[in-house]
Amino acid sequence: MSRYVGAIDQGTTSSRFIVFDKHGNIVSVAQKEHKQIYPKPGWVEHDPLEILANTSEVIGAALARANLTASDLAAVGITNQRETTVLWDKATGKPLCNALVWMDTRTDQLVQRFTKDGGQDRFRAKTGLPLATYFSGLKLLWILENVEGARKKAEAGEALFGTIDAWLTWNLTGGANGGKHVTDVTNASRTMLIDLATCDWDDGMLKHFNIPRACLPKIVASSAVYGEMETAPLRGTKLAGMLGDQQAALVGQTCFAPGEAKNTYGTGSFLLMNTGTDPVQSKAGLLTTLAYQFGDEKPRYALEGAIAITGALVQWLRDNLKLFDVAPQIEPLARSVEDNGDVYIVPAFSGLYAPYWKDDARGVIAGLTRYATRAHLARAALESTAYQVRDVVEAMEADSGIKLAALKTDGGMVANELLMQFQADILAAPVVRPKMTETTALGAAYAAGLAVGYWQNVEDLRANWGVDKTWEPKMAEDVRARHYKSWKKAVQRSFAWVE
């Protein structure tokens, strides 16, 4: 009997491989960052071959650290940065260009082209998504229109499209020698090319965007055996789970009942609420998306509030403004002042996502006086994350009719206790950090383990979940209202910056 399950966690800034035991504990982990490529303002790219090489490297390193081999793993799952778009040559396996990252805004002209005839929400009823630079279908169209030879190859089925899950799966299961070209329902739901009701590619959307069906992957369940790995050191291991990173965190947080929600604080932040077997159309600026599909069960849906920039704002203060040397230093710096000094940062570096969907917004720092210091900027940066989450929570409560009882959190920023307390304060609701905060990788492991019987059912997974710490709100209501009013004013200042 194989003792463990593995998860490839391919994120925006790094690739990791984590091995979990039956109780959801980490047995071994390895991680490697990849390069962020910025060819022009608003353009963000990754090298897919670098990501593939790093993924292979971290798999080997994590196994070696725990003295494990492929036979020790019952299955492996993949979770990935969603919407990041790759088009590659089927014969050679070489990408036709760098991957267009989810936060890349070069498709803004395409968004305007399609918005002219019917507005931003013209496809929302079918796809659950507004027209925005975020989603992968328009990124694929940009490649087809701007990379020489791409359309001809895609129409002939000689070039294959995928988000990072599909790119890794194809390569790990054989590549040009019979690799499986598949994507799961959660990643497919972020393309703007599927009908949410059928979970299949929609002929109407393909026609609207002029996308050839020949280049598209087969859509599969999030938990199923897709094939065996063909490359060392995992040759022969079943690849059996696939989830976009935020849906994976929802699974890792065991949010299996309608109304259960989680927020992941990463490069961006993403709040998802399980809405059960029926898609809920948002009237408050949220996304309707697939949550997961286990085997032959009915797919489950979610409402999602996607925030583009949260942890990335901390990186920007570190790398661009040189306010501190390493990210954890932001907390003591922010704690060195009592409050934000009336400074508010709206990090609309690539527009604003939920619930505003303003591609023309850009970042602002509001309320500056001679009193403000770098400590006030640090505090304002952390607080901007909490304000953006509140914006999304209010939209979610309006759409679902469900009042948030408590917020389950995960991701890198949950180690910041100042942020967690301020989040509870500004939400006026408890904020809960689980014992296992690596819930994204854990969700991919859970999906893979369920597919091969390593775990029997979702109750096995629920039994693994435990609370590390809970923050209760302490802020007076009048203070909360004043802060939030100022935040909303600052957000308004960021609109319509790009002509």
TrEMBL record:
Keywords: ATP-binding, Glycerol metabolism, Kinase, Nucleotide-binding, Transferase. Residues 4-252 form the Carbohydrate kinase FGGY N-terminal domain. Its EC number is 2.7.1.30. Pathway: Polyol metabolism; glycerol degradation via glycerol kinase pathway; sn-glycerol 3-phosphate from glycerol: step 1/1. ADP binds at residues 12, 16, 267, 311, 412, 416. The keyword Transferase applies. InterPro entries: ATPase_NBD, Carb_kinase_FGGY, Carb_kinase_FGGY_CS, FGGY_C, FGGY_N, Glycerol_kin. GO terms for molecular function: glycerol kinase activity. ATP binds at residues 12-14, 267, 311, 315, 412. Residues 262-451 form the Carbohydrate kinase FGGY C-terminal domain. Sn-glycerol 3-phosphate binds at residues 12, 82-83, 134, 245. It holds the Pfam family FGGY_C. Key enzyme in the regulation of glycerol uptake and metabolism. Catalyzes the phosphorylation of glycerol to yield sn-glycerol 3-phosphate. Belongs to the FGGY kinase family. This is Glycerol kinase. It comes from Acidiphilium iwatense.
